[in-house]
TrEMBL record:
The keyword Nucleus does not apply. Pfam families: ABC_tran (PF00005), TOBE_3 (PF12857). It comes from Paludisphaera mucosa. This is TOBE-like domain-containing protein. PANTHER family: SPERMIDINE/PUTRESCINE IMPORT ATP-BINDING PROTEIN POTA (PTHR42781), SPERMIDINE_PUTRESCINE IMPORT ATP-BINDING PROTEIN POTA (PTHR42781:SF4). Keywords: ATP-binding, Cell membrane, Membrane, Nucleotide-binding, Sulfate transport, Translocase, Transport. The lineage of its organism: Bacteria, Pseudomonadati, Planctomycetota, Planctomycetia, Isosphaerales. Residues 49-279 form the ABC transporter domain. InterPro entries: AAA+_ATPase (IPR003593), ABC_SmlMolc_Importer (IPR050093), ABC_transporter-like_ATP-bd (IPR003439), ABC_transporter-like_CS (IPR017871), Mo/tungstate-bd_C_term_dom (IPR008995), P-loop_NTPase (IPR027417), Sulph_transpt1 (IPR005666), TOBE-like (IPR024765).
């Protein structure tokens, strides 16, 4: 957090300080060791949450399996995965609401594995607003401070500051029943922030809201985070939500980490077929069927090690071009079955021989210019794809045009 923003929100260092031996850096309290690491010019970045080798069984069911990841101080990170992938279990373990079978949790550098919930310094926001129905908004937000024995004037000042921050200044006297779902979640967030937690944990915070409010709150959360920079880890099963809000995403499936990285990197360079499919639409096609259409060096030369006969190409709908003539690029011959305008893009449903469905998305302007119609025989060419070789267990990105360009420069195989 910069000095300017901390003054702007009133979340200043002096009042946030939980102890003399800690200092504040980009949203997290740091021990002297971590503070040194966070100084400008330092190689190591401060880590606010560190999960090491976490495993958890419910009966004989392995819900979380050797999960490790780090959250840098001041970042907003998503735990993304399908239902049952272990997201909530991990979040609850970090909060201290659940005990892991093995592994450890470090918060701002200190081992918190054995600490009770109240001593971890975490703020928690649940999917279903856990506001007290009989308390006003002001009392709800101030609740955590009251039980910690903070003085009344200080609680009042802090609640006003947070009401300003969440832009609900005029709502202090209302009861939860007099608020919309979105407003209740903003209050829940203010309540979690009130005791100045080291880290904020959010479990599907917008899951119970309708799509439009959800959309608005995502943007709101990101802006709020940019203002206060409190280290936040939030659980979602919604890929779009994770993309819109987070700095980093931890993708989970079956209780295991699949990949960790910034949203765009995961999208462009997924580590495996699961991540490729979970983070957006993808066509899966036999790589071998490109051989016949390949110009110059075929797909077997695009990778360091030639992929097996049954390797598959994973191609995003917007990474495909469609032509009425062959034009020197590798292609799949295809037939257009349906053309569906979808606002800014047009979706083409095609079929390649012998019987593979294929989806392409073209920008609206481009599809107008080309003038395709259902029933047209066309050539489909990938710009970028991932080759999945089950036998080798490898999943490798290929920039097709580049691979082809290099092959042409070589002059080989033409
Ligand atoms: N208390 C429990 N007892 C038994 N099994 C549980 C318990 N809590 C969770 N599980 C199981 O552990 C697995 C992981 O659950 P978890 O809630 O962590 O997943 P999740 O990814 O958060 O799912 P969702 O998005 O549906 O909330 C699920 O299969 C779930 O049924």
């Amino acid at each position: 957090m910069s000095a300017a923003t901390s003054q702007g929100t009133g979340l200043d260092r002096a009042r946030l300080s939980p102890g003399a031996d800690l200092s504040y850096h980009r949203g997290a309290w740091l021990s002297p060791r971590r503070e040194a690491a966070a100084r400008p010019g330092s190689e190591e970045k401060a880590v606010a949450i560190e999960v090491r080798g976490l495993s958890k069984k419910y009966g004989s069911f392995q819900a979380v399996s050797d999960v490790s990841f780090e959250v840098q101080a001041g970042q907003l990170v998503a735990l993304l995965g399908p239902s049952g992938s272990g997201k909530s279990t991990i979040l609850r373990t970090i909060a201290g609401l659940e005990a892991a079978d093995s592994g450890s949790v470090l918060l701002t550098g200190e081992d918190a594995t054995e600490l009770p919930v109240q001593q971890r310094g975490v703020g928690f926001v649940f999917q279903h607003y856990a506001l007290f129905r009989h308390m006003t908004v002001r009392d709800n937000i101030g609740f955590g401070l009251k039980i910690r024995g903070v003085s009344k004037p200080e609680i009042r000042r802090r609640v006003d500051e947070l009401l300003d921050l969440i832009q609900l200044g005029g709502y202090a006297g209302r009861y939860p029943s007099q608020l919309s779902g979105g407003q209740r979640q903003r209050i829940a967030l203010a309540r979690a922030l009130a005791p100045r937690p080291k880290v904020l944990l959010l479990d599907e915070p917008f899951g119970a809201l309708d799509a439009k409010v959800r959309d608005e709150l995502r943007t709101w959360l990101r802006r709020l985070h940019d203002e206060v920079h409190v280290t936040s880890l939030f659980v979602t099963h919604d890929q779009r939500e994770a993309f819109e809000v987070s700095d980093q995403i931890v993708v989970l499936a079956d209780g295991k980490v699949q990949q960790i990285g910034p949203p765009q990197v995961l999208y462009e360079k997924p580590a495996n077929p699961f991540v490729a499919g979970f983070l957006g639409a993808v066509n899966v096609l036999p790589l071998a069927s490109l051989k016949a259409g390949a110009i110059g060096r075929g797909p077997e030369t695009w990778l360091d090690r030639p992929p097996a006969e049954h390797a598959e190409a994973y191609v995003r709908p917007h990474d495909l071009d469609v032509y009425s003539e062959r034009d020197g690029k590798p292609y799949w011959p295809a037939t257009i079955e349906r053309i569906t305008p979808l606002g800014g893009v047009v979706r083409l449903d095609l079929r390649i021989a012998p019987d593979h469905p294929l989806q392409i998305e073209l920008p609206r302007n481009r599809s107008h210019g080309v003038g395709f119609a259902a029933g047209d025989e066309v050539y489909v060419s990938p710009r970028h794809l991932n080759v999945y070789d089950r036998a080798q267990g490898s999943f490798q990105p290929v920039d097709v045009h580049r691979a082809l360009g290099l092959a042409l420069q070589d002059g080989a195989g033409i």
